[in-house]
């Protein structure tokens, strides 16, 4: 009798990304993913993939310039979290950021909103962002 051998598991695709909790006047910029994108309709902190030659902070600057057409100061790292989606494992490093130049404009997202921590908790967040949301909502931005 032959024993069945367990099927080999495929290695998961690891996707390293960054997200910006851009703070202004005690509120945080939240972005809703657009139709036709993975996780459409979920809310997230704007950002994107870290390129192989970049640090997380460099990627944060580039992604905000590309997605929102503005410039930010990347301040404190909030956390690094991961979530296993069907398309791979997203490893998200989130930062608190402050606007330096420009006004955020829609280019990729369906909607953007400046929200208080209480308002943020009412949104349907992408799973990878949820840990950062909880930590950011516990921060005091009223002194900034």
From TrEMBL:
Belongs to the Nudix hydrolase family. InterPro entries: MutT-like (IPR047127), NUDIX_hydrolase-like_dom_sf (IPR015797), NUDIX_hydrolase_dom (IPR000086). It catalyses: 8-oxo-dGTP + H2O = 8-oxo-dGMP + diphosphate + H(+). It comes from Bifidobacterium dentium JCVIHMP022. CDD domains: NUDIX_MutT_NudA_like (cd03425). GO terms for biological process: DNA repair; DNA replication. Its cofactor is Mg(2+). Pfam families: NUDIX. This is 8-oxo-dGTP diphosphatase.
